[in-house]
């Protein structure tokens, strides 16, 4: 009997063509891939192992098979990402955009949605999706345009309305934001899985996650209160914050916001109570500590500011407030260090540069002070106090003509600015412009400046 030669183990692997057959036979894996690539691949492998015997595909090396699957999916995803463009239909471009959005490829998603709307300008869902993409790209104005268009088609879409309300609040459109939040109070959220991220006003990070359906009336009333506070409608803001607290009494931010509104109504004791309440709910609430420090006596306030900074060193206003406390105590170098940190965290706040300029003057860093005043003016040209301070510095350095120019700009922005009239009078007197100096002095007095008798007698030659 002839012996049969033993066959060596087969190393046959599943070729790409067969992988493609499996890909077509497992639609749920394709759907899962668009939501979560990791889950889609896992589902594909499991289903493939199950289907293998049924379609008689042989593979004896699972490691090679899995590697081939991963390569196949990488190619499939890359191809999927490129399935957009002018030659594609609106639907194809929109579907590609959805895949790209799940992968956080915002620039490519924007291109796909632009092509979608180029093909069909009435594809309403594309406007909403593009608004979300614009938000991720920090293009708030473009996001608002798309949300406005979308809400023309679907005026009661809760998620879109909430997105627009928050954007309007963030971009300073307070009246329109308040109107949107009021509309939301009377709009049913419906069935939704959309998730919103509430941004931390200090760090810019996410400090709370909530769904549109779960946002609740407490959030809406809180936002309405914030909008009214920004508009200076502090009584209306208190009503809104009271409503928010009645729905969610354990939300510390609302207590802080109500405290701020009370400060606007000069109710300091009421504000202190609200800040303390926020701290009983959240003992490390940095903003509550900061605000409490601002309204408490300086000695106690300084300790609270130290604690606020320790709890959250990313709050520029806490550093600036502590710098001001040190400035009041004539602790110039310590104040400078704190202003430096405040500016590092937020270089767009003109007041920080103005105050740091004052500190630098005290430390006789005149060049640094000049640069800080100039930066404050660059941040807001109509900042008359910065023009005044720079004028004072120039006058101190003997640059009288330049000082007079700065005082003149301050007066042009604020014609009733008594201090600018007075300081220009002094500067003009120094270069013997006596009549002009006397006229400036009279205007300073007219606009409430307390002009010393001796100065008036000297400049206007009054006996």
Brief digest:
With 463 residues, this protein is mainly alpha-helical. It contains 25 helices and 2 strands. A two-stranded antiparallel ribbon has the order 1-2.
Question: Could you characterize what this model shows?
Answer:
With 463 residues, the chain is mostly helical. The chain has 25 helices and two strands. Among the domains are: 16-81; 156-189 and 206-281, Tetratricopeptide repeat domain (Serine Threonine Protein Phosphatase 5, Tetratricopeptide repeat), CATH 1.25.40. 71% of the residues lie in helices and 2% in strands. The chain is globular.
- Estimate the global geometry from the Cα principal axes: globular
N-C termini distance: 144 Å
Number of strands: 2
Helix content: over 70%
Q: Biggest β-sheet, characterized?
A: 2 strands, antiparallel
Task: State the order of secondary-structure elements, H for helix, E for strand.
Answer: HHHHHHHHHHEEHHHHHHHHHHHHHHH
What is the CATH top level name of the domain at 156-189 and 206-281? Mainly Alpha
User: In order across it, which strands form the biggest sheet?
Assistant: 1-2
CATH topology of the domain at 156-189 and 206-281: Serine Threonine Protein Phosphatase 5, Tetratricopeptide repeat
Mean pLDDT: 79
CATH superfamily of the domain at 156-189 and 206-281: Tetratricopeptide repeat domain
- Name of the CATH architecture of the domain at 156-189 and 206-281: Alpha Horseshoe
Low-pLDDT regions: 1-36, 51-59, 75-81, 191-215
Taking Cα atoms only, what radius of gyration do you get, to the nearest Å? Answer: 33 Å
Helix/strand/pairing class, anyone? mainly alpha
SS summary, helix count: 25
The fraction of residues assigned to DSSP E strands is: under 5%
